[in-house]
Design goal:
This protein has eight helices and 30 strands. It is an alpha+beta fold and 528 residues long. The strands form six sheets. It has a five-stranded mixed barrel with strand order 1-2-3-5-4. A five-stranded antiparallel beta sheet has the order 8-7-6-9-10.
């Protein structure tokens, strides 16, 4: 028994001489206990690591027989066990790694674990490092939260082992990577080649594409052969794109890119593929005050002018007929390759209302419609076919002198009229209101109003050149200014006013001109 104790003391002494506190040894896991892990570290000794130093990931990944590096915390306890630490071994190794990284400028991997004042906190294998906000990225990041939990590479900017102070930079790693990529990218850059890149920024005038360490500008005019309002209609930040190098300025390191050049210009063969008269189907992509743009294919659009949307004589705004995204059918009117213009018509896909009018109506036919517009020169009457006919002011009455159509008609009033002429090509339809009744100048007026007769009439209006008088049957006559007996004051209104009834003598009946001349002189009845 005494010999066994002596042997144990000899072994402990031997272990004590070979193993010292602060050493980092490599051991092998012998067993997992409830309170810790037993590790064989050689020298006829076993070590103990508290279970609290192992994460759930460690416990699942390690097993009996796994190698592990440990730190000698206490050489031999009362039970002859060497107390070890896994965490301290890892930290010492990490500080050694950080020292080498700082000395040689090599990057180290770490995990962003949280936000701190002025930056982020990074865990590098158990060592806490500070990442200043200015060193987070090449460009300014508004939201640091998106980086929390991510593993990435950093460069050590400052290291103080005594104070356990470590400052790192992600920006330095990105800049170095970008410079390396730039060198490789520049080596292969030349006009006309196809390259891949990532959309980095979008502006009103174009898109900046990261080609690998160097940015290229894709101008809005080189995005599509068609018309686009903003580059964001085609691209989004982060998109991977394939572009063509249009020009590389090596001296200034400027790269001009093209996207539409990947395909041939559709306008080169547009006239052959879309001849005049061809019917097409396309999508409404834009609506303006003057018409709507229809996409026939990618990069090729045609314009339906407002006048070609519908047969209405006074077209409504295009948005009243069409909506963006709607599929429509149209016919090609004109293709101009040089001007890159293609004219379309929707209304010509259906018969012209003037064709229907020419088929349904004849000269002399009576029609009915509502007054749509009153003008100085006449009245526009709407027909069911969507065509307006004009009643000229001279065709409103056989007998009355009408100053304005509003004297006898109102907007919206239903009227009957006679078709006087139809011209479908000129899109004109002449109507007559007075022609509803027979022309009284052919029989009634010549028989009722004889030269020299004295008749009674009502003063309608007084003008510089005479007095208009309404005679029996609504017939108007004019008392010439030379045939008026003027008072001493010289003012006709002193003796005659509008609405007065007066006697006049007929001195002229012009059937061709449809005029009756009157006089206030030498009246027998007037004298009476």
């Amino acid at each position: 028994m005494e010999l066994e104790n002596n042997e144990m003391e000899r072994l402990y002494a031997e272990t004590f001489q070979r193993i010292r506190e602060g050493m980092i040894l490599r051991g092998r896991i012998l067993a997992f206990k409830q309170d810790g892990v037993i590790v064989d570290i050689g020298y006829k000794s076993e070590g103990f690591i508290p279970i609290g130093e192992f994460s759930e990931k460690d416990i699942t990944s390690l097993h009996v027989g796994s190698d592990i590096e440990v730190y000698v915390d206490e050489v031999v306890d009362s039970e002859g066990i060497v107390n070890l630490s896994k965490e301290r071994a890892e930290k010492i190794k990490t500080w050694e790694l950080l020292g080498e990284a700082f000395q040689h400028g090599t990057p180290v991997e770490g995990k962003v674990v949280g936000k701190t004042k002025g930056g982020l906190s990074v865990d590098i294998s158990g060592v806490s490092a500070f990442l200043p906000g200015s060193q987070v990225d090449i460009k300014l990041l508004k939201d640091f939260d998106i980086l929390i939990g991510k593993r990435m590479l950093f460069k050590v900017l400052k290291l103080n082992t005594k104070l356990s102070n470590v400052i790192v930079s992600r920006k330095a790693v990105l800049e170095e990577e970008r410079q390396q990529k730039k060198v490789k990218t520049i080596e292969k850059l030349k006009d006309g080649i196809s390259v891949k890149g990532v959309v980095k920024n979008i502006t009103d005038y174009g898109v900046f594409v990261d080609l690998g360490g160097i940015d290229g500008l894709l101008h809005i005019s080189d995005i599509s052969w068609g018309r686009i309002n903003h580059p964001s209609e085609v691209f989004a930040i982060g998109d991977e794109v394939e572009v063509i190098v249009l020009k590389y300025d090596e001296e200034n390191e400027k790269v001009t890119l093209g996207y539409k050049q990947k395909k041939s210009d559709p306008w080169l063969t547009a006239a052959d593929r879309y001849p005049v008269g061809k019917r097409i189907r396309g999508k409404v992509v834009s609506i303006t005050d003057y018409g709507a743009f229809i996409e026939l294919e990618e990069g090729l659009e045609g314009l339906v002018h407002i006048s070609e949307i519908d047969w209405l004589p006074r077209p409504k705004h295009p948005s009243k007929h069409l909506s963006i995204g709607e599929m429509v059918e149209a016919v090609v009117l004109k293709v101009d390759k040089e001007e890159r213009r293609l004219s379309l018509s929707i209304k010509q896909m259906k018969p012209s209302p003037w064709e229907l009018v020419a088929q349904r109506y004849k000269v002399g036919q009576k029609i009915s419609g509502k007054v749509k517009t009153l003008a100085d020169f006449g009245v526009f009457v709407g027909l069911l076919e969507g065509v307006d006919g004009l009643i000229h002011i001279s065709d409103l009455s056989w007998t009355k002198h009408i100053k304005h159509p509003s004297d006898i008609l109102k907007k919206g009033q239903k009227v009957e009229a006679i078709i006087l002429s139809i011209d479908p090509e000129a899109e004109k339809l002449a109507l007559g209101l007075k022609q509803i009744q027979p022309d009284p100048w052919l029989h009634d007026i010549p028989e009722s109003f004889k030269l020299g007769s004295e008749v009674k009439g009502k003063v309608l209006r007084i003008t510089e050149f005479g007095i208009f008088v309404e005679l029996e049957g609504g017939v108007e006559g004019l008392v010439y200014s030379s045939e008026i007996i003027k008072p001493a004051s010289g003012k006709i209104e002193d003796v005659v006013k509008e609405g007065d009834e007066i006697w006049v003598r007929i001195i002229k009946v012009d059937i061709d001109e449809k005029k009756i001349g009157l006089s206030m002189r030498n009246l027998r009845r007037g004298e009476e």
